[in-house]
Amino acid sequence: MSQTTRIARAYVDAKLKVLSAGFGAEIVWQRSQSDEGFTESTLLREAAWVILSAGMSEAIVRAKFPAIASCFLNWESASQIFAREQSCIEAACHHFGHRAKIKAIAEVAKIIHGKGFATVSREINREPLLSLRQFPFIGPITTYHLAKNLGVSVAKPDRHLSRLATAWGYVDTHALCRDISEFTGDAVEIVDIVLWRFCTMAGSWQQLTSIDKTLDA
Question: Domains of the chain: which residue ranges?
């Protein structure tokens, strides 16, 4: 059995476990992002999610996110957030103690308000990985996370997928997810979310390499 076949079979096994654990909605959500494109509200929400998630537990961010969304007017529009910038920041800081991140969310709204959503969306559609870095807290790695959440077909190089790619002999996470995508028919961003969720469920990326090794037994 070829290495690619083993990896693809390990991926399918992982996907079944992710679905059995009740995380199918995440896969459906990712597919909908890819199919529908993004709105101004989506951009505000996903930028906020990625900013808050940097270096933080996903479970903590998920628990606090509804309250923060309410403080930022449920991401209705960048102009409305900009008009109430200070009150949004102060309210959100009661729920999330990292003031710099909260201010960064307001800065995203300020940038979109200043340029106009039509201009920002054209920039993102033309060069997503570059243009998204105009936002605060969006760096070389988090730009992949935000791009993926906006429906761009990329894989994010987080610690789980990066270690997995290295263990399987790939130069980066996108190359790994691309090969699995070509073998299984799942989009790159779907492969990403399945591998990431399985690693968080299993507690380690090594669980996937263990599945891989058992396939030759």
Answer: 3-34+154-214, 38-149
Say which DSSP state 204 is in. Answer: S
| pTM for this predicted structure | 0.87
Q: CA dist 161 to 57, 132, 177, 217, Å?
A: 16, 21, 9, 25
User: CA nearest 155: which of 2, 11, 48, 4?
Assistant: 11
Name the strand (E) or helix (H) holding 50. Answer: helix 40-53
Indicate the residue type of 151: G
Give the torsion sign (CA, 189, 194, 198, 201): positive
Tens-binned pLDDT, residue by residue, of the chain (217 aa): 688 788 989 999 999 999 999 999 999 988 888 777 799 999 999 999 999 999 888 899 999 999 999 999 999 999 999 999 999 999 999 999 999 999 999 999 999 999 999 999 999 999 999 999 999 999 999 999 999 999 999 999 988 899 999 989 999 999 999 999 999 999 999 999 999 999 888 766 667 666 655 555 4
> Residue 6 has which token pair?
């083993």
CA 143 vs CA 72, 80, 95, 97, 164: distances in Å: 22, 25, 25, 23, 20
